[in-house]
């Protein structure tokens, strides 16, 4: 009999006692739930409360539980050039070994990236999901790869006015421009 009752805590906590110690046993999990916390950065992320879909395969192996699958969610942020809203569907692959306490590894010196602690009862996918989503988010989100951004002098959105320019005067000559504006115009006689 398969025990799949969920914990009352985090939706990232998956009970796995029913397949622990039974190498070759597999369970498929497909769930949707609101993100309990922000996944991402200040520039772009999956907001708390946004629906997250988790599609996983849990495979019992000698040392614990191997998980593989995807996490899907909608990330929202702002363009790094023009500050417009950016929406991005994130489909992030996730995988890792939830290792049972006392499991021996061949190379004890270096901790592999995809190995996580496991108490033998519940898989806590919080770190796995957070890292997978963060890896798929752009460092600088853009509304469009060719977004020209904002004018560095007046803040106008350049995509709305492609011909937008300002007269540029070399600051070293600005004092002369002021004198020219104050001087009366003279006509030279020949």
Can you put this structure into words, describing what you see?
This protein is mainly beta and about 190 residues long. It folds into two domains: about 15-135, no CATH class; about 150-185, no CATH class. The chain is about 10% helix and about 35% strand. It has helices at about 125-135, 175-180, and strands spanning about 15, 25-35, 40, 45, 50-60, 65-80, 85-100, 115, 120-125. The strands form two sheets. Strands 2, 3, 4, 5, 6, 7 and 8 form a seven-stranded mixed β-sheet that branches. The longest helix is centred in the last third of the chain and has 11 residues, at about 125-135.
Write the layout of secondary structure elements.
Elements: E1 13-15, E2 26-34, E3 39-40, E4 44-46, E5 51-61, E6 64-78, E7 85-99, E8 115-117, E9 122-124, H1 126-136, H2 174-182
Parallel strand pairs: 7-8
Antiparallel strand pairs: 1-9, 2-5, 3-4, 4-6, 5-6, 6-7
How would you classify the helix and strand content by structural class? Answer: mainly beta
Tell me the distance between the termini.
110 Å
Instruction: Give the biggest sheet.
Output: 7 strands, mixed
* Strand segment count: 9
Categorize the overall geometry: rod-shaped
How would you spell out the order of helices and strands? Answer: EEEEEEEEEHH
Q: How much strand?
A: 25-35%
Number of helices: 2
Number of domains: 2
Poorly predicted runs of 5 or more residues: 1-7
Q: Please state the CA-atom Rg, rounded to the nearest Å.
A: 29 Å
Average pLDDT confidence is 82
Instruction: Give the helix level as a range of percent.
Output: 10-25%
């Amino acid at each position: 009999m398969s025990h799949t009752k969920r914990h009352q805590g985090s939706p990232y906590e998956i009970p796995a006692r029913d397949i622990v110690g039974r190498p070759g046993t597999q369970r498929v999990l497909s769930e949707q739930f609101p993100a309990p916390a922000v996944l991402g950065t200040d520039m772009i992320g999956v907001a708390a409360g946004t629906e997250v879909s988790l599609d996983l395969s849990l495979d019992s192996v000698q040392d614990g539980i191997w998980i593989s699958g995807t996490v899907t969610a909608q990330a929202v942020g702002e363009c790094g050039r023009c500050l417009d809203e950016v929406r991005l569907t994130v489909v992030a692959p996730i995988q890792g070994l939830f290792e049972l306490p006392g499991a021996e590894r061949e190379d004890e010196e270096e901790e592999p990236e995809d190995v996580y602690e496991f108490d033998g009862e519940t898989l806590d996918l919080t770190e796995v999901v957070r890292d997978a989503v963060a890896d798929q988010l752009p460092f600088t989100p853009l509304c469009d790869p060719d977004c020209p951004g904002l004018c560095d002098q007046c803040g106008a959105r350049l995509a709305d006015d492609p011909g937008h320019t300002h007269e540029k005067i070399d600051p070293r000559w600005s004092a002369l421009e002021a004198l020219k504006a104050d001087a009366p115009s003279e006509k030279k006689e020949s």
